[in-house]
């Protein structure tokens, strides 16, 4: 499928796609759209930043009649920011056709959402906790829902939403279509799919050789915990990002790190679950409009967020899970653009890094910590570029010329320019900052079982096409289709692979039972189940 018109979409929807600037479908869109239009249940798996949102968004808006005045589609996402973003894309796809959609998420004034519901949206995009609040208040009824989408379902389970999702789905008629999308497919997703999807078509665009997006150059730096902050500043100076997302392990870490970066003169701010929703919205707005260029975040920003211009992702702290690594670095290198990721690894964490490499099937190149002089050169280069750019703008500089001429009569020209550059760099490297050290990630011994689908599986065809009992292992080259079974590991056997049969792969001990909250050293120590019901949200985990 090389054009959107071949899907037989209505002209309104085609117009919306053109307005979005999409010229041709991405591989996951090419394969998922016809299946979703056919009404079948589906698991859609494709690398980060390859257009999964429109892969479900286009069929959703196509299937709804503009005259419909009931909630017929429900999309669930793990975080508020993602609910907002998905709602924006759905709104753009449905606008020309007159489809009404509404985001429903925690932290926003519920009265405002109730007013929004009075406009009778056909599509609701929400986080599970707030959705349940509305259901309990009877401001949302799910009796007429025909299609449910679970975006980043594994993350919702990791955050402890299994019970909420189960309650919500039990209120949706059995006769429905359920679509599940993610870039990674850990074991608990397979379990969830078994429970809630009926005979799903599994469309996987994950190549056998690499689960991370190929547009991302991946590096790591071995660094002592106490050197991380200076290392980070050197990195930002050496290779100034257009926009960068820096991931820290815990809310406290993110708060301290963003504060420290601001003190040192970087245009940074932090995003984590302890901020009010207004603060979170403000930070996201500043990052999207470029008034800050460094976003420091917990894993609350790891999933799904699509911000164009993110050139760098930096893992200030190594993530606990390989999935988290894949999703975090996937905030760059999106929609065909290039990106770079840097990961800091303390000496005691190198085993865990190699584990991540093994699972993601990609070697992460080691680089030395940038030296002070490399950092200085980078900084000077940027300042020089800014000055040269300003030189090109004669009109802007005219007002300064008279003083410049005076100064040049009194001082050496090189000395003058060097002093001006020094001032422009806003160098604050002597400002003291304090960061509480984090414990190293402990590499976990994973348990493996052959039943759960995890990372194992039978995939052979790389990008090729494979159907159960059908074209096994034939496809090579090009983006093909891979269905049924198999996580994203191709034929892995031995250490991490499943011992034959469907699936296999590792199962994380701390996720046993499929609904465990994160509760180990990875910084997810809060016990959200202890908290009162009513305003459940991602705030209950430490992100
Ligand atoms: N057909 C297309 N042509 C060009 N750009 C597209 C197309 N489809 C989607 N995009 C753009 O690609 C970017 C990534 O899309 P999206 O956020 O849906 O990715 P994703 O696969 O859901 O990623 P993640 O796994 O991180 O959630 C967005 O900016 C989107 O506008
Ligand atoms: Mg997505």
UniProtKB/TrEMBL annotation:
Q: Listed GO molecular functions?
A: ATP binding; hydrolase activity; RNA helicase activity; RNA strand annealing activity
Task: Keywords in alphabetical order, please.
Answer: ATP-binding, Cytoplasm, Helicase, Hydrolase, Nucleotide-binding
Q: Which spans does this entry mark as compositional bias, Gly residues?
A: 451-480, 495-506
GO cellular-component terms in the record?
Answer: cytosol; ribosome
The identity of this protein, by name, is ATP-dependent RNA helicase CshA
EC number(s) on record? Answer: 3.6.4.13
Q: Return the similarity comment.
A: Belongs to the DEAD box helicase family.
Which residue ranges are recorded for the region named Disordered? 442-543
| Sequence ranges of Basic and acidic residues compositional bias | 481-494, 509-543
Instruction: Kindly indicate whether the keyword Transcription belongs to this entry.
Output: no
Q: Which organism is it from?
A: Cohnella thailandensis
């Amino acid at each position: 499928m090389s054009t959107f018109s071949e899907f037989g979409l209505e002209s309104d929807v085609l117009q919306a796609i053109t307005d979005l600037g999409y010229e041709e479908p991405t591989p996951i869109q090419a394969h998922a759209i016809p299946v979703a239009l056919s009404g079948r249940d589906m698991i859609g798996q494709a690398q980060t930043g390859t257009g999964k949102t429109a892969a479900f968004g286009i069929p959703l808006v196509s299937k709804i009649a503009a005259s419909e005045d009931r909630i017929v589609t429900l999309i669930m996402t793990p975080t508020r920011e993602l609910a907002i973003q998905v709602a924006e894309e759905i709104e753009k796809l449905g606008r020309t056709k007159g489809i009404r959609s509404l985001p429903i998420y925690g932290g926003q004034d519920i009265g405002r959402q109730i007013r929004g519901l009075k406009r009778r949206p056909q599509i609701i995009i929400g986080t599970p906790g707030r959705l349940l609040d509305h259901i309990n208040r009877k401001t949302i009824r799910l009796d007429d829902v025909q299609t449910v989408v679970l975006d980043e379902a594994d993350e919702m389970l990791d955050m402890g939403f299994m019970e909420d999702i189960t309650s919500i789905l039990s209120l949706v008629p059995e006769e429905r279509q359920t679509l599940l999308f993610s870039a990674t497919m850990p074991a608990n997703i397979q379990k969830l799919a078994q429970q809630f999807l009926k005979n799903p078509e599994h469309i996987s665009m994950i190549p056998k050789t690499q689960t991370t997006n190929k547009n991302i150059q991946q590096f790591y730096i071995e660094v002592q915990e106490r050197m991380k902050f200076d290392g980070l500043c050197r990195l930002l100076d050496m290779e100034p990002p257009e926009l960068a997302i820096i991931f820290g392990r815990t809310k406290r870490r993110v708060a301290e790190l963003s504060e420290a970066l601001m003190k040192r003169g970087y245009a940074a701010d932090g995003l984590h679950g302890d901020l009010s929703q207004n603060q979170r919205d403000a930070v996201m707005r500043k990052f999207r409009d470029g008034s800050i260029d460094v976003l420091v975040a917990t894993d609350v920003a790891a999933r799904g967020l699509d911000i164009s211009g993110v050139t760098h992702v930096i893992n200030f702290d190594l993530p606990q899970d390989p999935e988290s690594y894949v999703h975090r670095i996937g905030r760059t290198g999106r929609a065909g653009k290039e990106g770079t990721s840097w990961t800091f690894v303390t000496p005691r964490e190198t085993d865990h890094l190699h584990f991540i490499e093994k699972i993601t099937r990609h070697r992460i190149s080691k680089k030395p910590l940038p030296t002070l002089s490399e950092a200085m050169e980078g900084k000077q280069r940027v300042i020089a570029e800014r000055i040269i750019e300003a030189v090109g703008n004669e009109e802007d500089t005219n007002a300064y010329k008279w003083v410049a001429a005076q100064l040049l009569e009194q001082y050496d020209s090189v000395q003058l320019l060097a002093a001006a550059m020094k001032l422009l760099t806003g160098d604050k490297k002597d400002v003291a900052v304090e960061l509480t050290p984090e414990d190293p990630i402990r590499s976990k011994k994973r348990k493996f079982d052959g039943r759960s689908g995890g990372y194992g599986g039978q995939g052979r065809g790389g990008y090729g096409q494979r159907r159960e009992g059908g074209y096994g292992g034939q496809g090579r080259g090009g983006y093909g289709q891979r269905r049924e079974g198999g996580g994203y590991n191709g034929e892995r056997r031995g250490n991490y692979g499943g011992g034959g049969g469907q699936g296999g792969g590792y199962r994380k001990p701390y996720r046993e039972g499929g609904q465990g909250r994160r509760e180990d050293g990875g910084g997810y120590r809060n016990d959200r189940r202890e908290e009162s019901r009513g305003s459940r949200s991602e705030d209950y985990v430490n992100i």
